[in-house]
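RECORD TYPE: inverse folding
INPUT: structure tokens
STRUCTURE:
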């Protein structure tokens, strides 16, 4: 089979090599999967760069989110077990963690439903307790993670403010249904949010960016608001000023979704059932901007690493094209 492998960590275009390798052998409690579609995630870039909290043994195949087919013919969503990741024709994954792929989504969409939407649902509902009628601010609203949060916020009845970088991404955020779109490259985010909310600010902020985005959030967070810290795609980890948290009476909440898979797997399955329901009604639909062949995977990971993409890039290793419903 063909698989992208990393022998030495570095920038994806240089570090990833497409090789012919034997099909992976499942370990205890694992199954082998034929990969139909693999969604590219920012953690894939961090893995290739050697900067992720998990460091698989070299060589490894990146790809942490797939829609795949089991050997007994089931269509599933899975997080592959590294070092046998999803940017390959075959991968392995824990059998107990497989989830049924929603019938309402094609393979590429199903591959992109899991990590971003689970993170969004747990962040907005379990951590921030978002309520209908509240104002939700989403940073990087046109990206893969942000677009999921926008859709989930709208489904929850929130007023959604999307923050983006550039006119093209602003158009995408508008199409997603944001009630207000702020272009951080041309506008003062805090001032626009304060103006839009009549001075109150955002009740909930969803931040997968960090750095300047977090700083802007603290300037426009409402009284008793909640800032959900999801990641640091901007490259800078902010240092919260706790005196400011105290003075303005807001909360800073961390969200590492992967912990729930180990600590509360039943909650993950319940969340998947809810996401499947929302997908069936059309309330959520992964924003797949490009469907790419396996040969283009290294370039896709590099583009996600560089922050130049809109929506999700999905690689289709399956010879049938990975598009069947």
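DESIGNED SEQUENCE:
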């Amino acid at each position: 089979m063909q698989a992208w492998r990393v022998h030495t960590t570095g920038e994806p275009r240089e570090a990833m090599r497409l090789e012919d390798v034997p099909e992976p052998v499942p370990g205890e409690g694992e199954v082998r999967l034929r990969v139909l579609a693999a969604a590219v995630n920012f953690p894939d870039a961090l893995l290739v760069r050697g900067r992720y909290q998990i460091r698989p043994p070299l060589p490894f195949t990146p790809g942490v989110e797939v829609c795949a087919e089991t050997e007994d013919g089931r269509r599933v969503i899975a997080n592959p077990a590294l070092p046998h990741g999803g940017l390959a024709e075959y991968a392995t994954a824990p059998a107990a963690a497989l989830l049924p792929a929603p019938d309402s989504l094609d393979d590429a969409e199903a591959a992109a439903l899991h990590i971003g939407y689970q993170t969004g649902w747990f962040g907005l509902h379990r951590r921030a307790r978002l309520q209908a009628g509240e104002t939700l601010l989403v940073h990087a609203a046109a990206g893969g993670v942000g677009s999921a949060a926008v859709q989930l916020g709208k489904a929850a009845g929130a007023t959604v403010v999307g923050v983006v970088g550039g006119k093209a991404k602003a158009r995408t955020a508008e199409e997603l249904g944001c009630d207000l779109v702020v272009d951080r490259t041309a506008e003062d985010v805090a001032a626009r949010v304060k103006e839009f909310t009549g001075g109150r600010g955002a009740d909930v902020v969803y931040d997968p960016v960090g750095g300047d985005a977090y700083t802007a959030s603290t300037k426009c967070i409402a009284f008793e608001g909640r800032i959900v810290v999801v990641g640091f795609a901007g490259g800078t980890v902010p240092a919260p000023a706790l005196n400011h948290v105290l003075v303005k009476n807001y909360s800073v909440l961390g969200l590492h979704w992967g912990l729930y898979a180990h600590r509360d797997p039943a909650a993950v399955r319940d969340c998947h059932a809810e996401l499947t329901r929302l997908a069936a009604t059309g309330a959520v639909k992964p924003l797949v901007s490009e469907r790419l062949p396996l040969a283009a995977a290294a370039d896709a990971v590099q583009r996600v690493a560089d922050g130049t993409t809109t929506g999700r890039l999905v690689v289709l290793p399956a010879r049938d094209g990975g598009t069947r419903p």
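NOTES: Residues 2-113+286-316 form a domain with the Quinone Oxidoreductase; Chain A, domain 1 fold (CATH 3.90.180.10).
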